[in-house]
Amino acid sequence: MATHNNHLNGDAISNRHVSKKPKLAPTAAVAVITEDDLHSEFSHHDPAVARINNGSFGCCPASVIAAQRRWQLLNLRQPDHFYFNELKKGILHSRTIIKDLVNAEHVDEISIVDNATTAAAVVLQQTAWAFHEGRFQKGVDAVVMLHYAYGSVKKSVEAYVSRAGGDVIQVPLPFPLTSPNEIITEFRCALERAKSGGKTVRLAVIDHVTSMPSVVIPVKELVRICREESVDKVFVDAAHGIGCTSVDMQEIGADFYTSNLHKWFFCPPSIAFLYSRKNSSSCDLHHPVVSHEYGNGLAVESAWIGNRDYSAQLVVPDVLEFVNRFEGGIQGIKRRNHEKVVEMGQMLAAAWGTHLGSPPEMCASMAMVGLPACLGIRCDLDVARLRTHLRDEFGVEVPIYFRAPAAAISAGDVVTGYARISYQVYNKVEDYYKFRDAVDQLVNSGFTCAQLST
Amino acid sequence: MDSPTTNNHNHIHTHHLNGASTISQPSKKPKLLSSSFITPAEIHEEFSHHDPSVARINNGSFGCCPASVIAAQHRSQLHYLRQPDNFYFNELKKGILQSRTIIKDLVNAKHVDEISIVDNATTAAAIVLQHTAWSFHEGTFQKGDVVLMLHYAYGAVKKSMEAYVTRAGGHVIEVPLPFPVASNEEIVREFRKALERGKSEGKRIRLAVIDHVTSMPCVVIPVKELVQICREEGVEKVFIDAAHSIGCVDVDMEEIGADFYTSNLHKWFFCPPSIAFLYTRKIPKGGSELHHPVVSHEYGNGLAVESAWIGTRDYSAQLVVPAALEFVNRFQGGIEGIKKRNHDAVVEMGEMLAQSWGTHLGSPPDMCGSMIMVGLPTSLGIACDDDALGLRVHLREQFGVEVPIYYRPPRDGEVGCVTGYARISHQVYNKVDDYHKFRDAVNQLVNNVSKSFKVVL
Question: How far is CA A434 from CA A59, A255, A336, B291, in A?
Fold first, then answer.
């Protein structure tokens, strides 16, 4: 049990006992969190909003915000002392907890960075150098990524791979989906395409949970296929991983793996980890912001990238404490979030006469729910405006995905919009009723997205 | 120090309470409507979170942040946590633009497009040098082309040169600088010699990286003159690393004339950790663009826009520039007044210490901003970098004095010279007692030479 004291008034952090394995359930000494406590922990959320979008920005409970403030004040009180005596220990403590959470073999394999976007830049910059320095061949070597890769990752691939002369192969994915096999088939096809085009796939970038549309990708299988097909390295972009899906470095077997901790692991913005499997090429990963720690390994480089506020990276122990106040700890939270989001998704789909975008087993704590076709969603601009309309007029926060119709069918018949609903511990059934009723009201009033083009 | 009278808040800018955001333009110049400025009691209050047992004479390393700006930052953070989607879509961009606009005015840049906000000068260096690396990769620069930097460039910048320039095939030339230094001419002379060396090898000098105020040892570099020399000698681009400048020395983009210029705002401009700006002079015809190394969906929309969104993070330190400006304008003369008084005080304290210890200053007063190098008594026997660090730790732990120490190796033929210099800073929260405490600590160490700090190590 992590019995650390909160960092009041510069008390020595070294007095803390660092628990090696995170407890998975509250012990007799720690009662399960009550409804009231839970409400209190998230009382800073805007009560007027049905906040069913934990997937975008995550959340942070009041007790962790308080812990972060203490760290910030500790630094401001005497920053030289903080830099020389507290910071490195604190970062190492966080890395150690993460290592245990994700079943990495060695704490050296865990670096802490700002977010998955930064982690992608770290990995892809290494790829760019490989092209510059002749280890990879322009016009021959390629990077494979999913079509539904996150926008920033696609740009990062353009900025570092395409620009350096590498080829990029995208794996088209169907949506809606009925089984993981559809994904596996497309992935194999893409690798085949690469091979028959005379390309060597140096890196596969695979989402663990895609962002929009959101589905859980069968990463373990895809990594295995990569090994079979001699793909050099696999980088799993699991922005949504920790606290959302099962995250086990030995199970998944990737070379690089990143996940945010501020999305589903209750950390304040922002903190992510980048796992890099110990082997020869992992020495060549560098943080793009170079400090005097350059060359001391990514984890050490990332722990000091100039003077900044590292407090979000230091509260991982406090977050673990918070999570362990729930029945079953993070596993329990994950399981219940999953069950609830599926239940709510099915409730909404039934109410609107639509369907889910993927089967429940391909959802984690998020689900894609079809919106009534009569809303007339015709393009990306429509979904952006509809989202704003729901926020401004109905107090519902939920991202919407535009899914272009496969063929030239009239928009009135086909579901072209999917809402990505999330479920996190602060959510209540009322949040989803509010959404249901808002959409019903729009439908009943004959609303179409065309009306929003003002 | 200041001698204000009554409490007065001469600002027109409102705080961002509960989402009531304003884009009012805070005044650049402090109001002179009444003669009341921040009082000593209020200054004390603003910095009451500082450890009172420490003589904190090292503002240069980590800066400081007054309580009212911390409070503004907390409000911004809570505003975000309350409804992050709304914040992202409706507040963030406006807030960043407001900060950039204030900075543009503060540094006399022509266009707000020229001002990007990044975490710190270390990040700005990575941006400029990564661009240099791409120029080598893409054949715009030839292998062996030269990048110049000062020998006293900051450690992180030297490593960045290694990581991006040397690794990409560039040739790095260091300009040796004398220390102690007696005049700007000494620096100009060495700089010219280094330029000659660079050109004599038949290669182009693609970039000169020049500190505005070096870190250790700390001296103010005559950047305007060096930029002029660079233009005369055909140096393609000049990047000024002014980690210490805004709030410490004069910062005028038109005056200085560099292509790239960066300064931290959390060192001498009262912002919380961390925020810096990177100025990039607008060029008439397009060259290849600078990019933030952390690539987001904003890639290609210009550095300022790229830097304003590098993934989900806490941008609050970048959003409280209006609050920092408000704070600064509570002082007589605003930031100019603060700068001048800091300079006068640090020179006075430096001279007091040098006289007490029988040593000297590392540079003349006109080569100092708000920091000054003070020679330490030779009897302390500082003989290497470890000794300097050891002394610093000893001063912190045994005497409650926080001050960085620089080891200055003796040159050939030098005997019995001063080998250790303390870099003292002066900021608005400092008091004369802080420097007396340091003076007395060193005198005590000198008097107890038999129990030197080195034995303690």
Answer: 20, 43, 21, 43
Close Cβ partners of B175 (under 8 Å, ≥ 6 residues apart): B148, B149, B150, B151, B190, B191, B193, B194
- Interval B85-130: pLDDT, tens: 999 999 999 999 999 999 999 999 999 999 999 999 999 999 999 9
Contacts for B141 with CB less than 8 Å, ≥ 6 apart: B132, B135, B170, B204, B206
Distance from CA of B438 to the nearest CA of A (A): 16
Q: Count CB neighbours of B355 within 10 A.
A: 11
* CATH 3.10.310.50 applies to domain A79-321: no
Question: Is 3.90.1150.10 the CATH classification of the domain at B334-452?
Answer: yes
Distance of residue B126 Cα from the nearest chain A Cα, in angstroms: 5
Six token digits for residue B296: 């987001």
Residue B199 DSSP class? H
Task: Give CA–CA dist A234/A230, Å, rounded.
Answer: 11
The pLDDT value recorded for residue A11 is: 39
Q: Is B141 helix (H, G, I), strand (E, B) or coil?
A: coil
Q: What is the pLDDT of residues B36-57, one digit of tens each?
A: 899 999 999 999 999 999 999 9
Please give the C-alpha separations between residue A401 and each of A174, A224, A447, B214, in angstroms, as whole numbers. 14, 30, 18, 52
CATH topology for B86-327? Answer: Aspartate Aminotransferase; domain 2 (3.40.640)
* pLDDT bucket at A412, cuts 50 / 70 / 90: low
Instruction: Count Cα atoms within 13 angstroms, Cβ side, for B143.
Output: 6
3-state DSSP call for residue B244?
coil
**Smallest Cα distance from B354 to chain A, Å:** 24
**Residue B365 pLDDT level (bands cut at 50, 70, 90):** very high
Query: Which stretch of DSSP H or E encloses residue B94?
Result: helix B92-107
Interchain pair A56, B122: CB under 8 A: no
Which fold, A329-451? Answer: Aspartate Aminotransferase, domain 1 (3.90.1150)
- Residue B413 pLDDT: 87
State CA A35 to chain mean position distance. 27
CB-CB under 8 Å, B273 with A308: yes
Q: Enter the ipTM.
A: 0.92
Domain ranges of chain B: 86-327, 334-452
A49 inside 8 A of chain B by CB: yes
Of B63, B78, B299, the CB nearest to A155: B299
Q: In sequence order, which ranges of B308-405 are alpha helices (DSSP H)? A: 316-319, 321-328, 334-357, 385-399
The full length of chain A comes to: 454
Task: Locate the domains of chain A by residue range.
Answer: 79-321, 329-451
